[in-house]
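User: Assemble these into one structure.

Assistant: Restating your components, then the assembled model:
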Amino acid sequence: MSPRIRVALLALSALILLPCAAQVIAGLPAFGSTIAQYGARINAITPEARHVANMVSAINFDLRGLDTLGEEFMLLAAITGTVVLLRGRRGEGMTGRAMHRPGRAVIPRSEATVLACRIAGPLTAVFGLYVVVHATVTPGGGFQGGVILASGTLLIYLGEGYTGWRDAIRSHWLDVLEGGGALLFALCGLVPMLTGAAFMQNVLPLGTFRDLFSGGLMLVENLGVAMAVTGGFTQLFLEFMEETREAEEPDEPGEESA
Amino acid sequence: MSAVTNVLPYAVAAWLFGVGLYGIATSRNFIHLVGCLGVCQSATYVLLLGLGYRWGSIAPIFYDHPPGTPAVDPVMQALVLTDIVVGATLTALLLVLTVQAYKRGGSLDPGKLRPMRAGGQTDRDRSSDRGRPAA
């Protein structure tokens, strides 16, 4: 199909769909006038019923925990697919360097960069952990905190170079984090059934409202999500960077810091 | 509120979706195509957050405000969170497919994509060296 026909087809379908979309938008409640009953009821009941302050976490980990379990395994499947597709074409004899264009001069890393990364890296990790553990109290949670933790590992790459990054980040640890997180989440659903409760029923003590230890089972699920997201996203970075490594060439002087 | 603000977020969502769709339909590069898909997806963020918003409401987190304060719809926010996570992993997976398509076909142009044959060799591998590493 030539591009011109494709655009013509798109314009034709837009011509048909646009009035329909306009009709639907006109039928929606006016922006900002009201919210759905379901959300309003959750806001009214959940702080009392689950002792959590963050409604979004309450929905993700408790009220609609089953959906998050599906999302968790979708994450796992997508990352497994990425790893399977990228691995297998690699061999020995690669340089210990990634993200480098062959033939371009290698500039030694400045000490200021190393220092900044060594200071910012642990701080990022601490902030990520803070966001993870306060999931039920303040904005945040396993997904957001996990992504912050994963990006914190990239600072190791920036400061220490690719070899240092690979030394610090072991691929099999990431597998354990990712799979273990998903397993932990699944167990959170299954273990309550052993006690005679429903799937993913919140059987742990609910704790104190506005306290770090509130929400019961949500805290464990949240930890599982954080592990899976941290492991999964770091695995993605690793696989993509691994992809940019070139075959071994005769070394040029002054390359070890690149 | 005026008639414009009543429909503006929904119109923005529709526009974003349309723009992304146009980009996908006319794309000449897989990476550009993945980016356009991201634009389409951001339309869903705008739509969901727009549907869940209510004037004069707080975020659905009752830490500084006591429970019972009017808050926006938390279900939509949870959905957007899911949406973002799904979008990020999907983008990664599509970029991997892009890498593989480039390795096999030597081109990032969707129009030049050929069916894969047994043995993994396409016509392009023999007739064109475009995009091959120089080494």
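The helical segments of chain B are 3-25, 30-52, 74-105, 123-127.
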